[in-house]
Amino acid sequence: MKKIIALVLAVLMVATCAATLSSCKKDSGTIKIGLSGPLTGPAASYGIAVANSAQLAVDEINAAGGLNGIKFELLPTDDAHDASKVATNYAAMEAKGMQVALGCVTSGPCLEFAKLSKDANLFFLTPSASANDVVKENNAYQMCFADGNQGTYAANYVKSLYEANTLGKLGILYKSDDNYSTGLYEQFMATIPTALKDAAVVATFTGDEATVDFTSQVTQLQECTFIFMPIYYTPAAAFMSKAVGKVANSATYYGCDGFDGIDTSVEGFDITAIPQKVSMLSHFNSSATTGKAADYIKAYKAKYPNAPLNQFGASAYDCVYALYYAMKTAIDAGKEITADISATDLCEILKEQFNGGFTYTGSVTGTGTVKWASTGFVEKDAVAYVIKEAN
Amino acid sequence: MSARLAVFFKNPFWRRYGNYLAVLAVAVVFGALSVSGVATSATQYLLEKIAIAVILAVSLCMVVGFLGELSLGHAGFMCVGAYAGGKIASLLVEALGGNQNSIVVLLLSLLVGGIVAALFGFIIGLPALRLRGDYLAIVTLAFGEIVRSVVMNVPAKLFGGTLGLETPRFNKKYLFIIALIMVIACLAVAQNLMRSKHGRAIVSIKDNEIAARATGIDVTKYKLFVFTVSSFFAGIAGVLYSYSNYRLQSANFDYNYSIEILVMVVLGGMGSINGSMIAAALITFLNVKLQTTLTGNLAVLQNFFYAIILIIIVIYKNAPGLKTFREKYNMNVLLSKLKARLKKQPAPVSADAKEDAENE
Amino acid sequence: MNFITALINGLSAGGTYAIIALGYTMVYGIAKMLNFAHGDIIMVGGYAMYLTLLAAGHPVLALIAAIVCCVVLGVLVERFAYKPLRGASPLAVLITAIGVSFLLQSVAQIAFGTSPKMLSALKINGFISVGTLKIDYSTLVTLAVTVLVMVGLTVFVKYSKTGRAMVAVSEDRDAALLMGINTNAIIAVTFAIGSALAAVACYLMLTKGSSVTATFGAMPGIKAFTAAVIGGIGSIPGAMLGGILLGVVESISLSIPALAPYTDAVEFAILIVILLVKPAGLLGKMRREKV
After folding, report:
1. Distance (Å, rounded) from C-alpha C204 to C-alpha C192?
2. Which of the four CATH numbers 3.40.50.2300, 2.160.10.10, 2.60.40.1120, 3.20.20.70 does domain A148-282 have?
3. Of B65, C194, C214, C253, which has the fewest Cβ atoms less than 10 A away?
4. What is the pTM of this model?
């Protein structure tokens, strides 16, 4: 037994030593963009859409000649929506020469990424990690709306309906173990008038969102005429199809950007079978048929016909292009960006850009132009989409 | 030369202190590499993870291997320790002006985390240890899930809610050294306990509880004692875990994590501390390697390979039908054959190999 | 009124748990192993229905295909992953079961991707109104199927030769072997029945509108395991009782806003309390250990 122990330990040590020494290798020639997201596990739909869309943008940019000849390269890693895996991914991407990043796809892991990148002074622009604290440091920027801001927008909209006396009975459905959902919910509740808050019916669910059976929640909310649902499209679709005939047909389902994809990404769900009005306040609409968004959707579907398509992906596509144009603007302004620029140097250049009023035009999300506040929050227009009118 | 070496290693000293020295050697060698700036952060993270996994595996080994009780809630005790220690650490760090690398704070929170976890171990163990095998397993599993759910849903001011608790992150250059020292402490407790008369009492409970009771051993007291000590070290591992991340997320401490620790103990041969250590190190290493090698579109293969490797190893190591195969092709026999071929002598079956075959 | 609705919803959720728990409990009773891969058999059943619906498009056909698929898979898993370990430590079998669970989940993600599949064709819409109560047809179907399964299984175990052999094997495997019972065959049959029940449970879940993903079976699996233990693992009526009880507790807890986020904790707390009062579960037999 001793021998086996000794042998195994020796092998392990040699292996780690090898890892220690071999990881400094860095092949130059491309600017490397790091990304950590859930490519496996229950949140994989979101991570895969991001990885695919970012790759699509990278491929398009490279096919068009890159950044003045410098090609981009995406380093997609899997964190399975687990923050404790992020450091390992970060180290691995760093060893491969990551110079700039899209951060993480989901908020929890991205908070870890934010700290790591702060220590290393690496710039990141996250497509979808929407917790307010993600962009607390000055090297971090968001492409999606922060949870707090979205909650406020939604609350203001609901407040306006309430004041115009067209709201009726308010119901809320949120997922109590998800930070996106609770973030929006808490901000929403803090913003709406107290009288409305006290009268609202609140239902919650937890766990794997695809398997939730919404019988209980539908029962709780069936009297409501306006249901605010700060949740993602999969459970939203399940809830709506469960509520047919129970919730009044004249009711409205109202969601935020998590709703996007409800009409396109849930296989087997037919939104036209839902009698109620479905609307959302979002920066992207997966069933868009005009403009840049439609071009992106077409290109994405051509390249990844079976992969999930949602606003996470659209946002990631925008992130890569925003980084590209920011670098291009910097070069035009006389900065020097080479393929082997260090992460810190690139971070300083990009910070200056994003802080100094850089505007990204031609975006897929929002209404075409995207700017950033010095806080790291995105400034673009949210559009109220009516996914489906009441029948 | 090699004969002399063999005699040297036969010394009981090695049997007693070999594993301490191995851990110490790793700590010294990689500590030197790390402090001098040669070791990459990947290595530092890996060693942190390995040290935490080893503490978890050795402490669970005390319950599963020595006491013979199945616990599926080890991650729950770890969670309790992590949140208690992490909360204390973040409060102290804030009060002391933001120095995340204060060793005093670290030691204090290790102590607090360990004690709180031990307390929970005691409270859960008191009634639960009366239950029979698989029922104990489900109660511990349930405990872990309750802890996870409660920590996540209490007001965010307390434990950070769904976004998790922000905790100090100790300098990665040194944290794994401290974690490895905690491994040695854990080893010392587990090993000395098992080599004492109490250890023999504990093993007798596993072998035959009724007979043990008949010889006057206070079964309940021993069970509770082992369970509490094991929870204490799970708590220690939890605090180290909280110190190795910027943010604690209770979602990580689900029953799958408990099961992963159990896998380490089972693959390590159940009753063997060294086996648990090696299995913990190897499984952690394997997981990290799978995570960093299979990226992008290949990420989906991580669990696939992990599962295949797991099934093959368990069947190979445990299947009664493969016993003759194992005896014919185990590492010792192959090694001695190799040695014999090098020396051009017929292969002797070494005493060591025989002993190994008996052990298995 | 709310309470009555919660109760009825709970009966429906509990029925599904009960049917899954039956699979757990039978396998445990006979093979003495915790089959952690049982939940993933449910998931495979879901994908089998998905494929059948794509090809043939009939719900009944889909159910039959899922049952066949699950039975074949259950027996294969038993043959290749568990049978080699018969006689080894129960923990080794437990670990293999977990390995099988991971394997099935990753294969499902490789084969079907990550997008959830909602099988609208299986969904049973509509409800009947009793006063102000609205009871889903799917709830009624679930309750009917649950009762049917329970009665069928009880009759099978009590009166058929195979069923009685199963009881014999679960009581004492060695003695059963000596009496000329082919224990290996009985264990395989048990896995087949458990897997078939998993397919039925999957069908019931889909009639309520759940979507199939690679992790579809994980949570129902663990809940059903809890239910089986509450009722007394190894006991068929116990699994039914445990399942229903767990479903009702879950539904009531969800209907109380302050308690709703803690629902999982409440369910597991109930389990602990029950085990502390009745250490072998509600209907489990306490066995005295012989010296």
Report:
1. 19
2. 3.40.50.2300
3. C253
4. 0.89
